Amino acid sequence: MAMHISVVITTYNRSRLLETTLAHLRLQRYEPGDEIIVVDNASNDDTADVVARAAEDFPVPLVPLREDTPGKSPALNTGIAASRGDVLGLTDDDVIPANDWIATIRCLFSDDHRDLVGGRVDPLWEHPAPQWLQVEQDGRYGPMASPLALLHYGAAQDLGARTALGANLAVRRTVYDALGGFAAHLGRVRGTLLCGEDHDFCQRAVAAGYRCEYRPELRVRHWVPAARARMRYFARWFFWSGVTNAMLGALEHRSGAPLVPPYLVRRVATAPFSGLRHVLAGRRAQAAMQLFDAAFALGYIAENIRSRGRSGSMSRALAHKA
User: Fold this and answer.
1) Does pLDDT of 311 surpass 60?
2) Which range marks the domain in which residue 136 is found?
3) Half-sphere exposure of 281 toward its Cβ, with a 13 Å CA cutoff?
4) pLDDT tens digits, residue range 214-266?
5) What is the CATH number of the domain that holds 177?
6) 234 and 299 Cβ atoms separated by less than 8 Å
7) Higher pLDDT, 136 or 282
8) Same structural domain for residues 106 and 82?
9) In principle, which of 78, 143, 247, 283 could form an S-S bond with 67, CB 3.0–4.6 Å?
10) Are residues 208 and 254 in the same domain?
11) Which of 178, 197, 225 is the endpoint of a domain?
12) pTM for the complete prediction?
């Protein structure tokens, strides 16, 4: 039976980057029934014109959609709902897929027992990375790669507790439908660096018993603007990563558990001294990581306090009604 692949891209005010992404998708080797769906998340630039021009002579149907609800997850769910493929190929509007990206997806999913695949995401730097930013460690990407949405786990392996990135993710439609799509309360929303929709989706797939893998031969490059290779952006990203992890419940909340986990308080308290020690020793990358660990802890603590306060207010309101 022929396999049909639907590529779904969400976009917001990135018409020039999107134009480049579509130009590289044009070079893929498609088969009848494949399609590209671009969901405009209420852009106010010339995104609609860029998509319309590309659609005129695209090798497969290029379907423009619009989703006015802010956020990547609602836009993704809208695009996937309108797609027709057996396999969904997800990428972003600032990504350049390898020329064999579609062919690799088709090859990987020719194995009927493979349900979800995440691939390698390499950087496409606007400017060379600063000295403190060490993305690669021991032949794979370490924690410093996460704020830039880069990913390389090494050799092919089961996904396990790890996540694939939405910039390079393929999944069977039947799996997507069974899981109920991407969580609408997670994913990037304007004015925040909230994330976690891809991690949540992958972990629900693993928990449901689906075969989920990392495959390094499925490759894309992700645009890294100079503004993102700065400490200020990294500190902000790690803060929002802490918020995201608190929302995901990565640290279990049990009745009677402390409002603020003590080890996170210690992480915040010791970060300035540890960071200074690394700076004096000339270890810039380690000093930066101390700062970002503290930012993560602050984000987690802030969201934990906020969510506990909200739960307490709700409980008091219910008790009052009773």
Assistant:
1) no
2) 5-225
3) 11
4) 999 999 999 999 999 998 898 888 888 888 777 776 444 444 455 566 767 67
5) 3.90.550.10
6) no
7) 136
8) yes
9) 78
10) no
11) 225
12) 0.82
At residue 168's C-alpha, the angle toward residues 172 and 44, to 5°, is: 105
Q: Which amino acid is at 261?
A: P
What is the rounded distance in angstroms from the CA atom of residue 8 to the CA atom of residue 63? 10
Note whether 133 and 237 are within 8 A (CB): no
Q: CA-to-CA distance for 165 and 229, rounded, in angstroms? A: 19
The CA radius of gyration of the chain, in Å to the nearest whole number, is 21
Res. 276: pLDDT tops 90: no
Digit-coded pLDDT (tens) for 76-89 = 999 999 999 999 99
CA 105 to chain centre: 19
Task: Write the pLDDT tens digit of every residue in 173-208.
Answer: 999 999 999 988 776 666 677 677 898 999 999 999
Phi, psi of 78 (to 5 degrees): -65, -45
pLDDT value for 260: 63
Q: Which of 225, 249, 271 delimits the end of a domain?
A: 225
Looking at the fold, whether 217 and 240 belong to one and the same domain comes out as no
Q: Which residues pair with 62 in a beta bridge?
A: 36
Domain count, the chain: 2
Query: Do both 62 and 110 map to the same domain?
Result: yes
Say if residue 214 is in the same domain as residue 239.
Answer: no
